[in-house]
Amino acid sequence: MAKIEIAPINRVAVTTFVICISVGAIVSAIVHHPAPLIAGSLVGLYLLFAIKVVQQWEKVAVLRLGRYVGLRGPGLFHIIPVIETLSPYVDQRVRVASVSAESTLTRDTVPVNVDAIVFWLVWNAEKSILEVEDFVEAITMSAQTALRESIGRHELAQMITERETLGKELQRILDEKTNPWGITVQSVEIRDVRIPQALEDAMSRQAQAERERQARIILGQAETEISDKFVQAAAAYSENPTALHLRAMNMLYEAIKERGSMVIVPSSAVETMGLGGSLATAAIAKGQG
User: Fold this and answer.
1) How does strand 58-64 pair with strand 84-86?
2) Is the pLDDT of residue 84 over 50?
3) Which of 99-113, 115-129, 197-211, 215-229 has the lowest mean pLDDT?
4) Is residue 273 over pLDDT 60?
5) Which of 85, 141, 187, 224 falls 20 to 30 Å from 20 in CA-CA distance?
6) What Cα–Cα distance (Å) separates residue 11 from each residue in 8, 45, 49, 117, 262?
7) Which fold has domain 95-195?
8) CA proximity to 188, closest of 78, 77, 97, 253
9) By the 8 A CB rule, do 142 and 158 touch?
10) Distance (Å) of CA 27 to CA 11, 44, 48, 268
11) pLDDT of residue 169
């Protein structure tokens, strides 16, 4: 778990310390007296602990004899050593916390493992320093607790299909809790929802069975529609025998138009459709060609 650390002594202070000692040593060598070196060392030592540098994205609180006197940063500033101290440095950039909930029961009593990430930032460094001891740990623990509570209020299907809605709900809950600390939660994203392997296999079989059921229903509907069309066609052909003969001739043509194909047609069908003369003429023409 991430911890807040006080920034180490900065390079500006170290450089100033070295310069003061060097100047004091040079002056002492010129006047042949150790007083400038001692004075330079004392001044350098004071500035070593007095000069502080805060990065552009940081803030720090100054405490004078334990009392809060204000924020400093970003940039260069100085404090009175011993009398004034600094709080931990506060990073005000957008930060990410990873949280997880293992073996947590959903509303329909399904154990799930959920991983989420929380995007948050400190918008008021003063509150974050004075209102909570370790706001990084507080954010992580609050997010984990809120995630478990949210899982218990939703069913498995909702968690799988409505991750964005779940993330917005968690963001709202966390933001209400962390705003008094000077922290805002920008968003919560659900990365993964995992269920036990046995349950996953059972759900897969259930989905496959449902797809097969739907396929059979569609096939049955298609058969019903086809039979209705056949009934309509039979009614139309029964009233118009010529149309039936034309349809039969078209089907026969479609069957024999491919070279080398052979179709056996019952003699009764030939006589019914009056195709005897037509087929004989076609055969003679083919033989002469």
Assistant:
1) antiparallel
2) yes
3) 197-211
4) no
5) 85
6) 9, 14, 11, 35, 98
7) Tetrahydropterin Synthase; Chain A (3.30.479)
8) 97
9) no
10) 24, 15, 20, 133
11) 87
